[in-house]
Specification:
This protein has one domain. 81% of the residues lie in helices and 0% in strands. It contains eleven helices and no strands. The radius of gyration is 18 Å and the shape is globular. The mean pLDDT is 82.
């Protein structure tokens, strides 16, 4: 696997496209996409945003592949991987919070269990358009921010992220709370306007 990743690094932005697709399709390559994106941005600031766009495209492609794969047999996968208490908790999180779980795990540079949330979205019947827009809305700011940091801070971008991990976590929690509140307000308004309410 190390040799394969090294080959993708040598390919530059096109390698990042493939790496992002594989990572989002469920092949575990922890933090490799973020690290490669910042490395490419540091080495060639002029192509930083091209690399971010390709990472976004690859991630969307891989996520949609896993999403549609989960449409066929995803329930069996969920049953198998939600036997443990942690797995059950993650599934309950998705059932309770829906696509917010996908959005937060996709936008966060801190590793979160996105794969199970993507499979849950596919298996539990989330509309493909809503899923696509959620991934797009999360990956664009994440990858373009990482590309910016790489182009501005050079090879110190990774250390900068590590030293601000708690700040990033706090921002994500606030973001989740705000989005969750908006969803609840919209649900409440829909319920009040519903003829059967």
């Amino acid at each position: 696997m190390k040799n394969f990743v090294a080959t993708l690094v040598a390919w530059g932005p096109p390698g990042l496209l493939l790496l992002a697709a594989l990572d989002s399709a469920g092949i575990p390559i922890p933090a490799a996409v973020d690290a490669l994106l910042m490395l490419l941005a540091a080495n060639s600031p002029s192509t930083a945003y091209l690399a971010a766009a390709l990472a976004t495209l690859g991630s969307i492609a891989g996520s949609m592949f896993l999403f549609f794969l989960a449409r066929k047999g995803g329930e069996k996968y969920l049953e198998k991987h939600t036997i443990s208490e942690r797995g059950r908790n993650l599934r309950q999180w998705f059932q309770h919070y829906g696509l917010l779980t996908v959005f937060i795990s996709a936008i966060s540079p801190i590793p979160l269990p996105m794969k199970l949330f993507v499979v849950s979205a596919g298996a539990l019947g989330v509309p493909p358009q809503a899923f696509f827009l959620t991934i797009l809305a999360a990956r664009l700011p994440r990858y373009f921010t990482l590309a910016y940091l790489g182009s501005q801070l050079g090879h110190g971008a990774g250390a900068y992220l590590k030293s601000h991990a708690w700040n990033i976590g706090g921002i994500l929690l606030v973001l989740f709370a705000v989005l969750f509140g908006c969803v609840k307000v919209m649900d409440y308004r829909r319920a009040r306007l519903s003829p059967t309410a």
